[in-house]
Amino acid sequence: MFSLGVVLVSQRRTYAADLTAFLFGRVLFTNAAQLVETAVLAAIVLTVLVACRRPLVLMAFDPVTARAQGYRMRLLALLFNVVVALVVVAGARAVGTLLVIAPLIVPAASARLLSDRLPLIVPLAGVVAAVGAWARLEVSYQAGGSWWWACGVWECCALSAACWDGFSPGRGLAAWADG
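^ thats the sequence. predicted structure below, dont judge the formating
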């Protein structure tokens, strides 16, 4: 699908600019309507996740028990995929299709390194995502070009590495503090 999108975009006269925007987004050129669209999608995603929290967590960590309790696993998997697709759609215009992956995956992975408890992982992922987004936007703004947003992938990876090395339970500072 991705390659099909690149082929379609390459057929236009403004190929280079369109392809760059398609891959890396235009975070500094978002308007109020796009922000409203993103906020609405975020509200929908949060509502669905809060409403379906228990079955989704059970499906992710113990599918046998979820099936035994009567949850329809295919429906839950479809719901989860739709939620992920909405998040990708919400972020793709601003950060591009390539860069939506790092801000989607890395905060959750970093939060998982910081805690073993799910009730802590979710808010920690939000904090890591907010700090990462601010850092990427600041670097892009100070560098004077939206292409610097691409460096955010490296920032996300560095943030995750810092979480793993410095604060993971059983590693780094956390292990040192425990004695």
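Residues 88 and 101 are 8 Å apart (CA to CA).
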